[in-house]
């Protein structure tokens, strides 16, 4: 399917009265959630339409081509702001066919990861046709297939996008001496768990090994909050459970506004949409999770690759 067709479909779903698809991709809920939380789906209808509603193809193209020389952080804030009020739907993007036939791009529904991915692609693009290509490079290790998607944050999404030049780890630079080093280890036993197997990855595509990360402990984050630049990607980390294939379960953009720090994120649960939430409120709520404790956050700066994305593609470990 061509990008023009994909874009036309995405804009069509933003027409007044269009409804959002609620399908969930294989394993998406089990990978990061459990119990009643896994059963939650987007049920709230936004009080207002998002910033993409009513745009036709020419207006969309003009918007993408606007202020392309602005700092990337400004572009990210501008594009991500248009997603505010977009309904939360778990794993709304796929490959358009095969294991996950969900559309490859959409503006009417996001989860926390696809919200960040699409905002990055839109912010990085200088012309409308670049959006689809950039999104592929961010979402996939090499080829746009389910097996080659960056499913796991520690083992795939973060290291691949750092290698490609899309991200830089700024956790230690911003957290200073409060920053600690943590790891996530994936073993053959990890992939025998029910939640890991639900991803339906063939054995040869199941990454194993130990992956290092920098983390600011949860109780230390607010001491550094005002120093985090707007547009920084904040990643939420939980305690390491050996049978879970990830310990990262959420992410969003930091927004500094009127002497307060917010997290712009696609929120599951109470909001069920993209919101700007006071960061301290968000962290306080996260500190109360008892079953799978939140331990801290990592911080990443989005960047423009020095070379063309095609030359920087790296297969997942």
UniProtKB/TrEMBL annotation:
A family per Pfam: AmiA-like
Protein name: Uncharacterized protein
Source organism (scientific name): Myxococcus fulvus
InterPro entries: AmiA-like, Papain-like_cys_pep_sf
